[in-house]
Design the sequence.
C-alpha cells in the first residue's frame, strides 16, 4: 500500500496535476456507481433513472436558426424609446448638515389612464342676407356622439379582445361613458366601408403576389343558419370570408377577391377539359364570340342560350362550366399566377397547382383502429417511416439538390407501396400514394410549407369568437367581423401594431403613420 503523500513536499504544478487526477477518478467513480444503481434496479424489477432528452433550447438559440433570426429582427423596446408623459419629483426628507445634491435616480412607471373625455363642439351658425341659416359641418372623425378614440377602443376590445357587447356596455358605463348596446353595435359595424375595402385589397395583393397560400375552413352561424368561414393566407396576410356553402364553386368565387365576373379564356377551357367536361360542350363555349360576363345572371343566361342546362349527363355540365368560368376570371385578374395552394385534402380546395398537408396525411394513419399486435406494430412502423421521411423533407427545403430530390421520390414509393398485411392500412397507403404529386410538391417548390398549421392558427381566433358570441345577425356584422379579423391577423404577420393601424386609419392625432397593408404585402412577397 502506497504511503500517503505529504502536500507540503509537492510543488504548485504537482498539486494541480494531483487535483486533476482526483477529479477524473471521482467522475469515473460516479459513473460506476450510477451504472451499478441502474443494474440493481433492473434486477429488482424497479425503474431506473429517467433518461431525459435535451430540450433543444441550445440548438434553437444558435445564430443560424430561424427562431434566432426572428429574435434578432424583433425590436427591443428600451426605456429610452418610451415617451415620457409626466415627471414627478420625489424629495428626500430632512438631511444632515453638509449634504450635497447629486442629481436624480430615474425610475419609469407605466400606467394607464381610462376616463371619459367629453368634448363640446360649438358649430358656428350664420344667417345669409337671403335669410338662409348656414351651420358649420361636423368633424369627419365624429360618428354620432362618439369620437375616434372610443371607436378604436371598441374595435380592439370587440375583435381583438373577444369581449362581448354586454360586457363592453358594463365596462364603459363603469368608467363613466353613457352608451347603450345598440350604439356599440353601430360603432362596431356601421361606417366601416374603408376597412372592408382594405381587407379586400389585402386579399387581392396576396393572391397576385404570393408564391403559395394555405387554406382552411370551419363552421359558422349567420342569421340562425349554418355556414362556413374560409381562411386564405400565408406568412404575410390573412383573409376570412363567411358564406353559406363550402363547395368548390364557393371557393373559386372567393378567389376572385370581390370581383363578380365570369370569363371564358384558355385557362377556363383547360380547367373544363381537366374536369372531364364533354368535348362538344367545351367547343360550344369556345366558339361563341361572347367570353366575358359581368355577373352570375348574365352567365346563366349565356348557358341557357347555348342549351347547356338541358344536357342530362355526368358530370353536371353547368357546374363544371361555371367552375371553369370562375377559374378563368381568377386568371384574368392576375390572381394565383404560379401560386401553390396548400390544403388538408378537402375536395373544394383542389384547384390550380395544389399541395397537401403532411400532418393531415399522417393523421389518417394515426387514427386507424387496430385490433391485433401485428396491426399495431405495422401502424407504428409506418408512422415512424413517415415522420422520418417528413424530417428529411424539411432538410431538403433548406438545401434542395437534384440528387436528393430523386432519392426522396424513390423513397416515397418504397414507403407507400409497402404492403403490411393489414388490409385497411394497405388501402390507406395506396390512397396516399395516389396523391404523390401533391405530397411531393415541395420537391419542385421548396419554399412552400409542408403543413397547414398557419391556416389552422389563423382560423382559431374565429373559432374562439364563435364559441363566445355565437353567430352574426346582420350582413354588416358578418362582413365587418371577417374584415377586421383579416386585418388584425395581417397586421400581426407584418409586425404592425393593430392599435396603431386603427389610429392611423381613424386619423387620431399623434398616431404613427401606417402604410396601406396591400403595399406592405407586395413588398414582403417580392423579397420573400
Sequence:
Amino acid at each position: 500500500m502506497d504511503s500517503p503523500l505529504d502536500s507540503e513536499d509537492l510543488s504548485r504544478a504537482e498539486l494541480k496535476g494531483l487535483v486533476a487526477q482526483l477529479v477524473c477518478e471521482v467522475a469515473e467513480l460516479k459513473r460506476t456507481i450510477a451504472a451499478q444503481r441502474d443494474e440493481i434496479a433492473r434486477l429488482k424489477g424497479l425503474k431506473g433513472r429517467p433518461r431525459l432528452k435535451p430540450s433543444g433550447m441550445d440548438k434553437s438559440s444558435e445564430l443560424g436558426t430561424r427562431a434566432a433570426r426572428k429574435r434578432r429582427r424583433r425590436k427591443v423596446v428600451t426605456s429610452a424609446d418610451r415617451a415620457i408623459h409626466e415627471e414627478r419629483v420625489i424629495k428626500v426628507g430632512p438631511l444632515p448638515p453638509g449634504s450635497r445634491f447629486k442629481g436624480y435616480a430615474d425610475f419609469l412607471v407605466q400606467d394607464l389612464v381610462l376616463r371619459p373625455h367629453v368634448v363640446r363642439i360649438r358649430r358656428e351658425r350664420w344667417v345669409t342676407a337671403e335669410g338662409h341659416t348656414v351651420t358649420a359641418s361636423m368633424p369627419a372623425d365624429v360618428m354620432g356622439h362618439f369620437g375616434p378614440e372610443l371607436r378604436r377602443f371598441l374595435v380592439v376590445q370587440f375583435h381583438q379582445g373577444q369581449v362581448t357587447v354586454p360586457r363592453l356596455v358594463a365596462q364603459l358605463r363603469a368608467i363613466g361613458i353613457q352608451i347603450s348596446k345598440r350604439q356599440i353595435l353601430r360603432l362596431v359595424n356601421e361606417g366601416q366601408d374603408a376597412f372592408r375595402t382594405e381587407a379586400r385589397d389585402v386579399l387581392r395583393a396576396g393572391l397576385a403576389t404570393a408564391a403559395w397560400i394555405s387554406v382552411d375552413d370551419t363552421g359558422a352561424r349567420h342569421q340562425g343558419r349554418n355556414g362556413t368561414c374560409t381562411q386564405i393566407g400565408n406568412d404575410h396576410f390573412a383573409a376570412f370570408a363567411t358564406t353559406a356553402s363550402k363547395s368548390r364553386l364557393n371557393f373559386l368565387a372567393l378567389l376572385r377577391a370581390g370581383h363578380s365576373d365570369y370569363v371564358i379564356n384558355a385557362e377556363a377551357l383547360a380547367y373544363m377539359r381537366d374536369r372531364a367536361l364533354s368535348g362538344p360542350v367545351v367547343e360550344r363555349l369556345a366558339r361563341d364570340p361572347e367570353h366575358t360576363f359581368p355577373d352570375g345572371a348574365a352567365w346563366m343566361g349565356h348557358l341557357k342560350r347555348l342549351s347547356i342546362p338541358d344536357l342530362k349527363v355526368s358530370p353536371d355540365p353547368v357546374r363544371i362550366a361555371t367552375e371553369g368560368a370562375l377559374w378563368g376570371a381568377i386568371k384574368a385578374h392576375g390572381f394565383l399566377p404560379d401560386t401553390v395552394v396548400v390544403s388538408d385534402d378537402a375536395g373544394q380546395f383542389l384547384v390550380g397547382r395544389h399541395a397537401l398537408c403532411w400532418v393531415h396525411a399522417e393523421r389518417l394513419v394515426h387514427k386507424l383502429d387496430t385490433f391485433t399486435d401485428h396491426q399495431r406494430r405495422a401502424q407504428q412502423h409506418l408512422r415512424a417511416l413517415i415522420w422520418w421521411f417528413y424530417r428529411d423533407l424539411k432538410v431538403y427545403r433548406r438545401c434542395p439538390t437534384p440528387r436528393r430530390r430523386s432519392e426522396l421520390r424513390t423513397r416515397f414509393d418504397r414507403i407507400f407501396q409497402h404492403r403490411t398485411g393489414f388490409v385497411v392500412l394497405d388501402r390507406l397507403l395506396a390512397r396516399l400514394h395516389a396523391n404523390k404529386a401533391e405530397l411531393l410538391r415541395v420537391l419542385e417548390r421548396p419554399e412552400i410549407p409542408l403543413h397547414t398549421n398557419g391556416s389552422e392558427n389563423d382560423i382559431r381566433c374565429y373559432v374562439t369568437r364563435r364559441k363566445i358570441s355565437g353567430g352574426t345577425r346582420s350582413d354588416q356584422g358578418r362582413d365587418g367581423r371577417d374584415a377586421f379579423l383579416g386585418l388584425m391577423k395581417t397586421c400581426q404577420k407584418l409586425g404592425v401594431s393593430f392599435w396603431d393601424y386603427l389610429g392611423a386609419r381613424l386619423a387620431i392625432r399623434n398616431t404613427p403613420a401606417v402604410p396601406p397593408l396591400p403595399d406592405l404585402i407586395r413588398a414582403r412577397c417580392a423579397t420573400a
Q: What stands out?
A: Confidence is low (pLDDT under 50) at residues 54-63. The radius of gyration is 33 Å. Residues 358-450 form one domain.
